[in-house]
Structure formats: C-alpha cells, structure tokens
C-alpha cells in the first residue's frame, strides 16, 4: 500500500472506486456521509451484503500489493480471528471448526497467488462453502502502474518472480508477473461479493472504507425491525414508520372454512400465496425494504415499524407480516412480528 500520506493532509476528494457486487440484492450503505468516501460519478457506493448472525467467514483475496494485509488487520481489530495465507485445502476444515467449535464466531482468511496451482481449486471450494455457512469474498486489485510503484517502494519480489516456465534467466519480470497473476485470479474475481480498486487509496483510506462497511453491517443487525399486521377497521397503528395496504389481495374471510382462522394457519397462508400478485408483492416489498433499511440505519434510526394492513387484520395482513418478517430475518436483520388485531 502507498504509505505516503501526510498526517495533516486535507480530506481527500478522490472518487471511491468500489465496484458493484455481483448480487445487488444484498446491500448496505455507509454509516454517515461524513465518514463515507465519495461515490463514483453517477453511482452510489455499492454496499456489502448483510449476513445472518451465525458464524461468519470473510475471505480476502486479490492482487499482490493491493492491500490484503491492511484489510486483514482491520478485520482483526473488529474481532475477527484472522489467518494469512491459509492453504486452500485446509479452508473447509477450518470453516467447520469455526461453525461447530463455538469458540470462533467470526473468522477472516487471506488466500492469494502464493497458493500456486492449488488456487485453481478455490472457486469450486468456495461455492460449496457458501452453501454451508455465511461467507463473504472480498477481492482487491489496482492498476498495473500502481502495483509496480508499490513493489518498487517496498523492494519486495513478486510472488511469481520465480515462476517456472515463464521465467527469464530464472526470474519472471515484475510486469509479466502482475499480468500472469491477474489472469490466474480472473475466475475468483467473478465470485467476489465486493471488488475494490485500491489504486487511489493510501493504507489509512482503505482501512476507513473497510471499517465503515463492516461496522455498518453490525449496526444493521442490531437495528430492531417490527413487522406489524393490523386491520384498517380498527385504525392505523400510531407508531408505524412504513404502511403497506394488502387489501388488493383476495380475502379469505369470505371462504367459510377460513373465516375463523388467521393468516398464520397453513391452509390460509397457502390460499393467499396461490395468487401471482401475492408472490410479486412479497418480492417487490422485500427488495424495497432491503434498499430502505440501510438508509434508515445511516440516519441513526435504531428501530423501524413496518405496518401491513388489510380490512380486519386477521388474514392477509397476518400472512404478509409473517412472510416479510421471515424474509428480513433471513437477511440477518433483527426482526420481530406483531399481530395487533388478529384476535379481534
């Protein structure tokens, strides 16, 4: 990393070169505009995914000289158990130890080109690992001229400097080593949840960016979200922040066998879900909330009440509140479900 950063420098006006993750549905934003770096022209800073509150594994990878060590130190300061350059074939064993051992709640690993040919097995291993636990992949990179300068300043050899087959007189020139590394890491970069171009950051700026992202993820998990069902017949909830009207859905109340049941009953819920507009509404509302909630956190809101109403508050709104609550909880958010009028 570039360490030429005067302690009394003015706040940087450089643009944040964080590239969007491949799954935009999982998103977050920074805590405040004062601490957040400026966005790319015409784009907002793409946030990190929100992870469930169980064991987390963060894997940091990317180009040599791009700042992986700096990111790992940030994660260690945030309470992650950190391991640098863990052999690829040991990652599943280590992940299972974290998941079942109970003593390591969060862990972070650096995996990079030092693994040699074993790195070719990482994409398949990572896909399988992601099916078993909450896993995040961060990919760091920088422009060739920046990497060349950093290696020149540190006077450290490139990890591929002694690559067999590509060497000239026993050593691979630095520029060719960078190009070879970039090609080798191409398949892994495609899997990244967050890709960060560190070309214009010094070590302190990169630490701030990563710190802000992970701190914000923790704050989102601590925010209390209440999904409340209610009936318009009994009035709007006074403490609601967002209100959604589901009276456009077919009403189970007019079906005799459903009349005395609520939306929590499996048959009632199945009936309401059977309509295509129900499925589309659930999908649209879930994504809308995934976008809105990080912004509420950024503004300092510690709780949010989402009110979902139907006519009597017994069937449609109850089913929707249960469903939306489960969807948000699956994204790692601290969620509870309240049915205000289901017993009336």
Structure, described:
With about 350 residues, the protein is an alpha/beta fold. The protein folds into two domains: about 20-220, Rossmann fold (3-Layer(aba) Sandwich); about 225-340, no CATH class. It has nine helices and ten strands. Helix 2 (about 90-100) links the parallel strand 3 and strand 4 (about 105-110). Helix 1 crosses helix 6 and helix 8 crosses helix 9. The model is unreliable at about 1-55 and about 165-170 (pLDDT under 50).
For the largest beta-sheet, the strand count, sense and barrel status come to:
6 strands, mixed
Number of domains: 2
Low-confidence stretches: 1-54, 164-170
Choose one word for the global shape. elongated
At the fold tier of CATH, the topology name of the largest domain is Rossmann fold
The CA-CA distance between the termini, in Å, is 64 Å
| CA-atom Rg in angstroms | 25 Å
CATH architecture of the largest domain: 3-Layer(aba) Sandwich
Number of strands: 10
Strand order of the largest sheet: 1-6-5-2-4-3
**What is the assigned CATH homologous superfamily of the largest domain?**
P-loop containing nucleotide triphosphate hydrolases
In N-to-C order, the SSE pattern is: EEHEHEHEHHEHEEHHEHE
Helix content: 25-40%
| Fraction of residues in β-strands | 15-25%
Supply the helix-strand structural class.
alpha/beta
CATH class category of the largest domain: Alpha Beta
Mean pLDDT across the residues is 80
Task: Please count the helical segments.
Answer: 9
């Amino acid at each position: 990393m570039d360490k030429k950063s005067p302690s009394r420098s003015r706040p940087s006006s450089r643009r944040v070169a964080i590239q969007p993750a491949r799954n935009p549905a999982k998103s977050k934003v920074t805590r405040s505009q004062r601490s957040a770096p400026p966005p790319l022209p015409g784009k907002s800073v793409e946030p990190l995914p929100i992870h469930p509150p169980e064991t987390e594994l963060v894997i940091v990878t990317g180009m040599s000289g791009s700042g992986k060590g700096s990111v790992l130190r940030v994660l260690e300061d945030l309470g992650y158990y950190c391991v640098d350059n863990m052999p690829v074939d040991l990652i599943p064993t280590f992940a299972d130890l974290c998941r079942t051992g109970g003593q390591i709640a969060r862990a972070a690993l650096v995996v990079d080109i030092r693994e040699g040919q074993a790195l070719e097995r990482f994409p398949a291993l990572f896909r399988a690992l992601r099916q078993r636990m909450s896993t995040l992949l961060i990919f760091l990179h920088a422009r060739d001229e920046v990497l060349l300068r950093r290696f020149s300043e540190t006077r450290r050899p490139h990890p591929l400097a002694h690559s067999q087959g590509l060497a000239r007189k026993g050593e691979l020139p630095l520029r060719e080593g960078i190009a070879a590394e970039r090609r080798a890491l191409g398949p892994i970069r495609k899997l990244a949840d967050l890709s960060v171009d560190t070309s214009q950051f010094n070590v302190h700026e990169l630490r701030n960016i990563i710190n802000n992202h992970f701190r914000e993820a923790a704050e989102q998990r601590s925010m209390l979200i209440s999904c409340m069902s209610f009936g318009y017949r009994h009035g709007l909830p006074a403490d609601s922040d967002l209100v959604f009207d589901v009276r456009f859905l077919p009403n189970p109340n007019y079906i005799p066998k459903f009349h005395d049941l609520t939306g929590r009953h499996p048959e009632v819920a199945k009936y309401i879900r059977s309509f295509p507009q129900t499925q589309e509404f659930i999908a649209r509302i879930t994504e809308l909330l995934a976008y809105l909630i990080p912004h509420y956190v950024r503004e300092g809101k510690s709780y949010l009440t989402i009110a979902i109403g139907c006519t009597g508050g017994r069937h449609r709104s109850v089913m929707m509140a249960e469903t939306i609550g489960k969807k948000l909880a699956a994204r790692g958010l601290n969620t509870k479900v309240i049915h205000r009028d289901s017993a009336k």
